[in-house]
Specification:
373 residues; 41% helix; TIM Barrel; four-stranded antiparallel beta sheet; 15 helices; eight-stranded parallel beta sheet
Length: 373
């Protein structure tokens, strides 16, 4: 980036697109089911010829946002940013947070596009712009709630793809969950890591009882066993379970992360940029966790390869992130993304192109341009 580019760069135009993605199957968690991904694309154009892309993937039951809410909120945020310098990323994200403090998912898309521009302007891949280095990122692959037979079949497919870590959703029925977990362990063998995610599906007493039943299956950790605001319940479960607990829905903001550290409610935190407002907030959460000696995971919702690549860059740039759940676009059908991260035997490999290194296909954008806002 040249010195003269910085003060001269301005945001000229922001385009907003509904982004619907077909999935191979319905994905079920304890609090909702998802049939396809109804996302939002944000395109930020500058007067210096650089374009940044961002993506929002709203999960109604987790963030309280839908595609329709995101599209409406994006129009508001566009007015906040037009004409301003996109390289002043922190100032722009603080303005967006002040304007729409509760719309974290759509803010994360704008935040992502700003970081895409800034790292392109610096001539660096996003992970390097964030101060990171290329390091191994091995992800799990997630199995939704279903029958034990379905779980065994999906486990075999996951192993055939080269993945060595499996995450499965739980939180509906202790008996059904236990059958499914046993089927996964029997199919996977002793060397594959198994993680579980209850998505707030239990109260504290049920959580402890369930986790005691699952100890025989060598579970690596359990995400969000209790309701998001039940910090005392999460601490109770952490204190009474031999399976480590990871806070997920309980941590939207840096302040939430600080509360987890202060109360020692959980030894692990899942940083999902879509629920936290983007990379800017994610960096703060990672730093708070690191200061409190808490390890983190970088997770995802149902984003395409565009956002999943950005998430991988973020994960590579933060040493507090030791676990990876970056399988968002596995199972998407005919995804219209050029470049971006690829899976190689369970590892996520990002490109070294400046910026995120992933963009929507021009023909696809042309096709949906009539829906542009």
């Amino acid at each position: 980036m040249t010195e003269c580019m910085y003060p001269a760069m301005k945001i000229d135009k922001i385009n907003i697109y509904p982004f619907n993605i077909e999935t191979e199957e319905v994905f079920k968690i304890a609090t909702m089911s998802l049939s396809g991904a109804k996302n939002v694309l944000v395109e930020i154009k500058t007067n210096q010829g650089l374009t940044g892309w961002g993506e929002a993937s709203p999960f109604r039951a987790i963030t309280g946002e839908t595609q329709g809410i995101n599209l409406a909120a994006a129009v508001e945020l566009r007015e906040v940013l037009i004409g301003k310098n996109p390289l002043e990323v922190m100032a722009r994200t603080e303005e967006m947070e002040a304007w729409l403090p509760f719309n974290t998912t759509i803010r994360s898309a704008f935040d992502m596009a700003l970081y895409d521009i800034a790292s392109q302007a610096a001539g660096l891949p996003l992970y390097a712009y964030l101060g990171g280095t290329r390091r191994p990122v091995e992800t799990d692959l997630t199995i939704g709630i279903g029958t034990a037979e379905e779980a065994a079949m999906k486990t075999k497919k996951i192993l055939d793809k080269g993945f060595r870590m499996i995450k499965t959703k739980v939180g509906i029925s202790i008996e059904d969950d236990l059958k499914r977990l046993r089927a996964i362990r029997e199919t996977a063998g002793p060397d594959v890591k198994i993680r579980i995610d209850a998505n707030q599906g239990w109260d504290r007493v049920t959580a402890v009882r369930c986790l005691e039943s699952y100890e025989e299956l060598d579970i690596e950790f359990c995400e969000q066993p209790v309701r998001a605001r039940d910090f005392e319940g999460m601490k109770y479960v952490s204190d009474h379970s031999n399976i480590p607990i990871m806070a997920d829905e309980s941590v939207f903001s840096p302040w939430d992360a600080l509360e987890i550290v202060r109360t020692q409610a959980a030894p692990l935190i899942n940083i999902k940029l879509s629920k936290s407002g983007g990379i800017s907030a994610g960096l703060k959460i990672a730093h708070i966790a690191q200061a409190g000696y808490i390890s983190c995971m970088t997770g995802c919702m149902s984003e395409s390869g565009l956002a999943n690549t950005a998430f991988t860059h973020f994960a590579m740039a933060n040493s507090a992130v030791k676990y990876f759940d970056l399988d968002a676009n596995e199972g998407h059908v005919n995804e219209p993304i050029i470049g971006g991260a690829v899976f190689d035997k369970g590892h996520v490999i990002v490109p070294d192109d400046p910026g995120i290194g992933a963009t929507p296909e021009p023909d696809f954008i042309k096709k949906i341009s009539r829906e542009k806002i």
